[in-house]
UniProtKB/TrEMBL annotation:
Native species: Latilactobacillus graminis DSM 20719
Gene3D superfamilies, sorted: Hypothetical protein af1432 (1.10.3210.10)
Name this protein carries in UniProt: Hydrolases of HD superfamily
Pfam family, one: YfbR-like
Length: 210
């Protein structure tokens, strides 16, 4: 038993595209998403530290880098489908957890299993690091949708994804980094020159006022 299957799975994540079923001008793989989320989480952690918080950096990086690794087992399911009902979400989580447990038992060397049980478990929780992961994940999704809106993608789904991502970020406004994103970074995003800027600006104002 070695780590071959784990390392091979990293290649699989390169070929697993996000937001399946939607027309996109630019594809984003799960592997690329994981890297971007780690970079964003790093920025968010810096902001929190500057505001007096203590960050478990190892825990934050482990959560960010590994948070979607288990998608190699079930693929990237569209968010509206994944969260359609509580029962469906629970079933998918159960299947993913079972496949992950079997993978760790059968493919990860015994002396590393405890580490990978931690790394491949659900990273979004009520800890500070779990909240930072949740915000970082949605910031990257927001930017992925913005990239399509900016290019004039006719799919209305990307406006919906943008709005839902922003709503999630807003739920974490007890965090300095979430407030910083909304107050400092989001205005810069909206100042970009693109065809649907007025429409997106109106959507953002409406979302922020809800």
């Amino acid at each position: 038993m070695g780590m071959h299957q784990y390392l091979q799975g990293l290649n699989n994540l390169e070929t697993l595209n996000r937001a399946p079923g939607l027309f996109k001008y630019q594809e984003h793989s799960v592997a690329a998403h994981s890297f971007k989320v780690a970079e964003i989480a790093q920025l968010l952690g810096d902001i929190e530290e500057e505001n007096g918080q203590t960050i478990d950096w190892q825990g934050l990086y482990e959560r960010a880098l590994n948070h979607d690794y288990t998608e190699r087992f079930i693929g990237d399911i569209k968010t509206p489908v994944k969260y359609a009902t509580h029962e469906l979400r629970t079933m998918l989580a159960s299947v993913e957890s079972s496949l992950t447990a079997n993978f760790i038992k059968n493919e990860i060397p015994t002396f590393l299993q405890e580490r990978y049980q931690r790394r491949l478990s659900e990273g979004k929780d009520e800890t500070l690091e779990g909240k930072l992961l949740a915000v970082a994940d949605k910031i990257d999704l927001l930017y992925e949708s913005f990239g399509e809106i900016e290019k004039g993608n006719p799919e209305n789904a990307f406006l919906e994804i943008f709005a839902e991502s922003l709503k999630t970020i807003m739920r974490y406004q007890e965090l300095a980094c979430a407030r910083y994103f909304i107050q400092e970074i989001l205005p810069d995003l909206l100042s970009e020159d693109f065809a649907d800027r007025g429409k997106l600006t109106q959507l953002v104002r409406q979302t922020l006022s809800e």
